[in-house]
Automatic annotation (TrEMBL):
It comes from Anabarilius grahami (Kanglang fish). This is Hexosyltransferase. Its cofactor is Mn(2+). It catalyses: a beta-D-galactosyl-(1->4)-N-acetyl-beta-D-glucosaminyl derivative + UDP-N-acetyl-alpha-D-glucosamine = an N-acetyl-beta-D-glucosaminyl-(1->3)-beta-D-galactosyl-(1->4)-N-acetyl-beta-D-glucosaminyl derivative + UDP + H(+). Its main location: Golgi. InterPro entries: Glyco_trans_31. Its EC number is 2.4.1.-. It is found in: Golgi apparatus membrane.
Length: 412
């Protein structure tokens, strides 16, 4: 653009013949209007280093609001397999064709292989649903919906959460005052005899689900690299059954949340935002333990290992997956944009990738201790004064801590 500008504004000594300046790619036969490039003239070369980048590059181009147009559609013949768009049920098969896209496929850890073979699948049937979960007695919509990632076998964690920080109902903030309607829901996938050496807990789970009516379960294998599916399927569920919820907390079932303090905080931020008259302010609010400038882990024997053949480059800023809070309005935008972000094996990074495409940056809050408190402070109730969330606590610790924190410590 600079060189075109220079070329256009530079007026050489006038030659005898009339000359037109025509930029490369410009339409030569439109004399009247200014030169107009037929194609975008910035670099459209395919990012060919890693599989995820290649897939995403194509989607980014197709759904780029600036590049939107017919000319910019780009088909790469070598990436014929496109993420599943039209499948209706959970009948999505692993596709061996993906293996040929990764030169080092055979040397990768099992979880990476599994991920790659089914990364085109993102629609799985819901096995346990709670369509009315979001609403209270007078069909009041939840103010805060706490969505907790759990696994079939973690009965104890779920019960501890129900009895402590995830209690559903009208919850007051620490300062008393009006209550907010809070609901908790657990996000589960399958962990049964068909998906591995698991004891058959289906009858227990059924009983639990009918007792508490707070379990959503989808028909895919519950593994670490499949956690992203819980995000995208939860957003889909949310857009159907709870589109007007004010806030969503999403976190693990081994964290402790000071729900009352969180409600006070959200109320406080809400007042500030309204005060500044940012009518759109809430649309992009997301808060947590923000990790910026992180790079993929390249140690093949670790849980977070991402090979270079799969993903290149740094991660966008993201909020640690132990616990993050965002608005319902943002969840709706995430639900939309996630259809154009290729699945990534690490769920919190994936959320960061979606935010990046929405142009939203997560807000950091020092009260989210996703890596726990310093060791010497863990036993001191006063240390929890500024905590909104802390990882990690066993069910037993949750109950103890909950009890301790009922009485606000006097001298903190
Ligand atoms: C894209 O192409 C189709 C078919 O050629 C045409 O109907 C449509 O109007 C075009 N859209 C834009 C945005 O140019
Ligand atoms: C995710 O779940 C699907 C469906 O159950 C399964 O085929 C796939 O292997 C799982 N992926 C990982 C990484 O475990
Ligand atoms: C807030 O902004 C809207 C639109 O910009 C305006 O109509 C309204 O009067 C403003 N409210 C206050 C309290 O400033």
């Amino acid at each position: 653009m600079v060189s075109i500008f220079v070329a256009v504004s530079y007026s050489p000594p006038l030659p005898q013949l009339p000359l037109h300046f025509i930029a490369t790619g410009a339409s030569a036969n439109s004399e009247a209007s200014a030169s107009h490039p037929l194609r975008p003239f910035w670099n459209l070369k395919l990012e060919d280093g890693a599989l995820w980048n290649r897939l995403q590059h194509i989607w980014d181009r197709e759904h780029n609001p600036i590049l939107n147009g017919n000319d910019t559609r780009y088909k790469d013949q070598s990436l014929e397999i496109q993420p599943q768009e039209t499948g209706k049920t959970g009948a999505c098969e692993q596709d061996e064709a993906w293996a040929s896209q990764l030169p080092d496929f055979n040397t990768l850890p099992e979880q990476m292989k599994d991920f790659v073979l089914s990364m085109h699948c993102r629609r799985y049937a819901i096995l346990m649903d709670q369509p009315n979960l979001c609403f209270g007695q007078d069909s009041e919509t939840a103010f805060l919906l706490m969505a907790v990632k759990s696994q079939v076998g973690n009965f104890e964690n779920r019960q501890a959460i129900r009895e402590t920080w995830g209690r559903s109902g009208q919850i007051q903030g620490d300062g008393g005052g009006r209550g907010w309607f809070v609901r908790t829901v657990f996000l589960l996938a399958r962990q049964d005899t068909e998906t591995g050496p698991h004891p058959d807990l289906s009858a227990l789970l059924k009983l639990e689900s009918s007792t508490h009516e707070d379990i959503l379960q989808w028909d895919f294998k519950d593994t670490f690299f499949n956690l992203t599916l819980k995000d995208v399927l939860f957003w889909d569920w949310l857009s159907k059954h709870c589109p007007h919820v004010h806030f969503i907390f999403k976190g693990d079932d081994d964290v402790f949340v000071r729900t009352k303090a969180l409600l006070d905080y959200l109320d406080h931020v809400g007042v500030q935002k309204t005060h500044k008259n940012k009518t759109k302010g809430w649309d992009d609010f997301i808060v947590g333990d923000v990790i910026a400038n992180a790079w993929p882990n390249r140690q093949p024997d670790t849980k977070y290992y991402i090979p270079e053949s799969f993903y290149k480059g740094a991660y966008p800023a993201y909020a640690g997956g132990g616990g993050v809070v965002y608005t319902g309005a943002l969840a709706m935008r995430l639900q939309e944009v996630s259809h154009w972000v290729s699945l990534f094996p690490i769920d919190d990074v994936y959320l960061g990738m979606c935010l990046h495409r929405l142009g939203v940056s997560p807000t950091h809050h020092s009260g989210f201790f996703t890596f726990d408190l310093p060791e010497d402070l863990r036993e001191k109730p006063c240390a929890y004064h500024n905590v909104l969330l802390v990882h990690k606590r066993t069910p037993k610790e949750m109950l103890t801590l909950w009890k301790e924190l009922q009485v606000p410590p006097q001298q903190c």
